[in-house]
Amino acid sequence: MKKLLLFFVIAFSCIAVRATNPPDEGMWLPMFIEKLNYKDMQRMGLKLTPEQVYSVNNSSLKDAVVGLGSNQMPTGFFCTAEIVSPEGLLFTNHHCVYDMVQKHSTVENDYLTKGFWSQRKEDEIPNEGATASILYRMEDVTERVFADVKPEMNDQQRSSKIREAISKIEKEAAEGGKYTVNVKSFFSGNEYYLMVYEVYEDVRLVGAPPSSIGKFGGDTDNWMWPRHTGDFGILRIYTGPDGKPAKYSKDNVPLKPRHFLPVSIKGLENNDYTMIWGFPGTTDRYLTSWGVKQDIDINNPATVKIRDKKLAIMKEDMDKSDAIRIKYASKYAQTANYWKYFIGQTRGLKRLNVYEKKQKLEKDFTDWVNASDERKNKYGQALKLIEEGYTEMEKYTKSITYLNEAAFQGPELIFFCIGAMQLHKYLESHPKAKNDETALALAQEFKKSLNDHFKDYNLETVLR
């Protein structure tokens, strides 16, 4: 089962490679720390109380962990950062600020190559559209989401009731726009959790090392262990003078956080307690054997094949001039990141015999089901239906992958035109709305996207 994990999780381990206490992979929601994890975490060396880790009413570690996003998708986090000073300073990864550094780079001021360091707060660079979100609280709302769902409903009716419930819950929790709210489904829609965030829209670049440090090893070292990359970048959150989230203004002031993580210079020792807290992406841990086989045989090879070609085209043009190199640096890095990931994932799935292990799990499940007439009636068709679904889907899987990779994520103009659809649809459905507020706002947003798009555009590369 795939689940979107745009939320705080906890995983803990020991720092030594051959740790005395083997690591617990997680992932865990911090709201359950006292109920599920705290005794194990104490045994491994945690000295904080549950309230110091996660609390709604008092400052805690959760208030120092930040999700980086954009104003279009403020909780569509692409990276995690942590507050490390009483003035809103953020530490994150170099690859997380790479796009920001690229946007501010020119041939004359090539921050990608030389790095960027602000000596004063006045020199910190605003990043239009960047957001930083801090979790305020979370809540299990599964029962509320399913309150009006009946067993006899079809999928369409069920989905409609779930959407209605989620919309109501999110509207209530937003408190009139004070918070940004998401109700997220977990375990393929079996559980639902409310996430309430404070979203800050003034995020400035403070520092980033040159790519020779921040991307040391390049694609060769990416996703590999050990790593020798200086993979860090520094940002700062600003607020309005009243301390509340605000859009960029020269009058804004550094965030005064509820909590920040002090940086220790004491060093580390073997078996020191270690905890990873952040906003991961997605997991396919509960994928069935048919899904695993489809990834190994179809999805991953098709994705790698298309990205091989895209990377070769970009690289050839980037080598022709510094101007093109800077324009395509972020696009190249984003494409190469999951190109390398899917190569490694396929190798790992094969090496670890994941397909065969999934088959064994499914056989054990079938034996368990067949041992009871009640279970046979309830679950007897489950795996058969999943297999039939994958068999039907397999007819189109490669074509869909090629369409996504070579069309929607291929020629830049196609993706750009998709971005214009919102304005087009609004004007088409409101023929007299040429100068109303919504039309003007959409037009202004589209105009800005024009500038952003063609700033990093090279016609010869696109035509290839």
Descriptors for this entry?
16 strands, alpha+beta, 3-stranded antiparallel sheet, disordered N terminus, 46% helix, single chain, 2 domains, 464 residues, Thrombin, subunit H
What do you see in this structure?
- The structure is a single chain.
- It contains 17 helices and 16 strands.
- The chain is α+β, with helices and mostly antiparallel strands.
- Strands 4, 5, 6, 7, 8, 9, 10, 11, 12, 13 and 14 form an eleven-stranded antiparallel sheet that branches.
- Strand 5 (79-83) and strand 6 (89-92) form a beta hairpin.
Secondary-structure topology with pairs:
Blueprint (H helix, E strand, L loop, with lengths): L2 E2 L4 E6 L9 E5 L4 H12 L5 H4 L11 E6 L8 E5 L5 E4 L1 H11 L6 H4 L1 E2 L7 E2 L3 E11 L1 H4 L9 H20 L5 E7 L4 E10 L1 E7 L2 H4 L3 H4 L11 E7 L13 E2 L18 E6 L3 E2 L5 H30 L3 H30 L2 H17 L2 H7 L2 H27 L3 H8 L1 H9 L7 H19 L3 H5 L1
Antiparallel strand pairs: 1-16, 2-3, 2-15, 4-5, 4-9, 5-6, 6-13, 7-12, 8-12, 9-11, 10-11, 12-13, 13-14
Helix pairs in contact: 3-10, 9-10, 9-11, 9-13, 15-16
